[in-house]
Amino acid sequence: MRKLRVLVLTHQDIELPDTLEGLSEAEAREIKTEFGVVSALKNLGHEARTLAAPEDMTDIRRVMYAWKPHVVFNLLEEFRGEGVYVPYLLGYLELIGQAFTGCNPAGLLLADRKITTKKVLRYHRIPVPDFAVFPRHRKARRPKKLEFPLIVKSATEHGSVGISQASIVNSDEKLAERVEYVHDQIGTDAVAEAYIQGRELNLGLIGNARVESLLLWELYFEKMAPGVYPIATARVKWDQEYQEKRGITMGPAEDLPPGVENRIMRMARRVYRILGLNGYARMDFRLTDEGQIYLLEPNPNPDLAKDEDFAQSAMDKGMEYEDLIQRILNMGIRYNRERHQHRDGDA
Question: In what order do the strands lie in the sheet with 293-300?
């Protein structure tokens, strides 16, 4: 296998240790994705360097021209403090012909705009929950067709930012309170979606023109307290003590109704193509007791930590973690090569 120079873009200025042993749970959680990816790259025989939290294009351009990496491994969650700027950074890399991993700028930009994504998917008859948008500096007025219960989220943030049990509302008064919370505390527009009672499923996808599905994964809630909604709050995702107390685990989806898995896989691949995604992504779904499937959210460039659902579902399918990282590298290099071949052909 060819040895590559890989520049890893990370979202924080960190010193990666040789091992995670001896770190606290919080310390290990902060760096586990970067540690896992860089360790895998080195185990594969590649030369990996990190560029942490670049502030402008000058930082990136300087390293690019001095070191000339074969591929940039993108782990950035934000650029200059904003997640919405990451596609623009990737657009610069695309413009200069630099290969990079993960989703292309146009696909990432579309998927990051949740409301636009929902409208596009509705046009293509992909089942998504009913929703309404509440812009900042305006009062929350619920459309009559939007029935309770509702879940109120940021219209732009990802990773369960701002989502808690209080996000589920059952009255106009509580809706107004939660919308105001999103406006004031998160600083974004708010969106209220119909809450879909059912099983929380997700499916990993990897590929460019040809897309491979990983194992269908489920978030299990075994010991939830009475009256608590089974939703992926920030606490459910990141608080290990809470996970153990409430029996919250992730694993392969089991005992699905006949045909459901194939329907989800077909829908996920269709969404991947509609949004113009490539590299790798995770699609989040809800499955009702009646067998109705709803797409909650497409997530290009999901977390690649070894113990998170994307990597775990790949490993359960028989793909070792290093093999997954190499596949993602290959997809980035192939996308860049094919894009420039197409451009040269048009010329």
Answer: 248-252, 211-221, 199-207, 279-287, 293-300
